[in-house]
Specification:
Elements lengths: L9 H11 L12 H6 L6 E9 L4 E9 L6 E15 L2 E11 L4 E8 L4 E10 L2 E12 L4 E4 L5 E6 L3 E8 L2 E9 L4 E10 L4 E12 L4 E8 L3 E9 L5 E10 L4 E10 L1
Parallel strand pairs: 1-17
Antiparallel strand pairs: 1-2, 2-3, 3-4, 4-5, 5-6, 6-7, 7-8, 9-10, 10-11, 11-12, 12-13, 13-14, 14-15, 15-16, 16-17
Length: 265
Amino acid sequence: MGNVLARASPMSWRSQRKESSLPNPGSFDELHKNCKEVFPQQLEGVKLIINKTLSSHFQVSHTVRMSTIGLSSYHFNATYSGDRQLSPTETFPMLTGDLDNAGSLNAQILYLLAERIRTKAVFQTQLSKFLTWQFDGEYRGDDCTWTLTLGNPDMVNESAQNWMATLNVGYGGAHASYYHKANEQIQVGVEFEANTRLQDTSFAFGYHLNLPKANMVFKGSVDSNWCVGGVLEKKLPPLPVTLALGAFMNHWKNKFHCGFSIMVG
């Protein structure tokens, strides 16, 4: 068996990277975000969401959920955003807190150390007892993102304007997703997860249909567990109200549930 050695000059490597002109893939936490947003969120029972903007820096929301198969809950969420805005979706510093009726708190702090260096701290309590914390550091390059966390999973990511393919590999398994935006009305996503500890794998396909003229959005999904579902969202202009109706059925377990929600604000 022989060895093969390939060599490339630094100048040619840099020029190839410039010619590729790939965009930055974004934050590590958002690698699977585009794909996951294609899938519908399961609805069961009744959910009421009220959003209120108190100022340009402070927003709050109230969420009440009444369930027929689980426990009903109430969540209060407060968000503070600072003055430094790098993009329409990024404002620093940002503090977010979510508190439920059981006393469980999920707090998150985002802070910008430099133009390319972002930090995040996450604290969680459960039943009024301290549960966990996590600190992240992130460096944003021109076409790559370096993230340091406690878990420190390996990451492979390739992105473009209308599609994103992501693969995370760690000790517990692997998580892969593919997102594709066909046009302004149609988006699709495919997700694959393998858990080595539970010896379980799952596969899911989702699609997102946007009908702006009708003020309607439909999300549907089907997965390897024989679960089929969909959520239909309808805005009611000029009122700041959005209605959502969802239905999901698991053919293998012969289970069906549905629900609707009302969002104000």
